[in-house]
Amino acid sequence: MSTTKKIAVSAVAAAIGATALAGCGSSDDSSSGTKGAGSKTVTLVSHDSFNASKGVLKEFTRETGYTVKVLKSGDAGAALNQEILTKGSPRGDVFFGVDNTLLSRALDNGLFTPYAAKGLDQVASDVQLDAAKHRVTPVDTGDICVNYDKKYFADKKLAPPKSFDDLAKPAYKNLLVTENAATSSPGLGFLLGTVATYGEDGYQDYWKKLKNNGVKVVDGWEQAYNEEFSGSAGGRKAKADRPLVVSYASSPPVEVLYADPQPKSAPTGVATGTCFRQIEFAGLLDGAKNEAGGKALLDFLIGKKFQEDMPLNMFVSPVNKGAKVPELFTEFGATADKPATVAPETIAKNREQWVQSWSSLVVK
Fold first, then answer.
1. Interior angle at CA 52, CA 291 and CA 321, nearest 5
2. How much is the pTM?
3. Which of 19, 42, 208, 283 lies deepest, with the highest CB count within 10 Å?
């Protein structure tokens, strides 16, 4: 989600990233990090929203003998750009965090060495978008959706929006803040959701309506959610005045988990008719110095131990069908029955054009 990116220490923070990355493991072993065929350190390159319990990564070390070193690299887009610039001489062994909105860029640039991870038989086929070649392994899913401030709508005696259509209605004028589709993963996901809903011939007219209805655009998720959105803990502190924000279906559990004391119900809700499905992948980087360790890490990322650790660390959903999801995540999170999707090859063909058209309409 995400994520990514993605509220303090979260996936919402996953998606999109607000959490600090947990750099677990050490790089001072006798094998000098990832250098040399006998290295006992495997380096995971990721966006800032990657977060895992130290105990889980220690379990990986106990099982395999490899220590994980995490190298954070900014948001998902920035992290991917850095890997493209260092193609063939990567900074690590495994890259985590490329999602379906940017997958074609990674694959077209030949960043990954094919590897069919052990345990893929436990992963749903609909998220295995590169099943024919196994250049990437699906690790998690999350839905980018509009979140709303429950108190605001209760006080105004106004029903919160449920769909993309609702957001353009006069009742919700000057209430929505979204991220820039050119600079933010959730912003791009929200744009793609409108393309999926209204088609290539209709999404521009829809965005004209949103602009006329006072949509506010900011650079990234952190600003949108924690500074502009009145429903978040950060937004309340900043006296934010936008009760609608593009975030994640998993954002409400974060507001519960990190509140003190924890409320009985989440202060925010999700407009499930505005969701776009995000899938995050990991891959063995071409030129990885510790290829064996990288393969072992990919196996581990889709194993039950790591998959069951993700929901309350990165606030994303596991792809392993046997993984148990914590009650807090399911109780306070939302589920989109029919999230919008766009085929990766369609995104690859049209992404730049869609973003440019969107920028001309909404930002410039």
1. 80
2. 0.83
3. 42
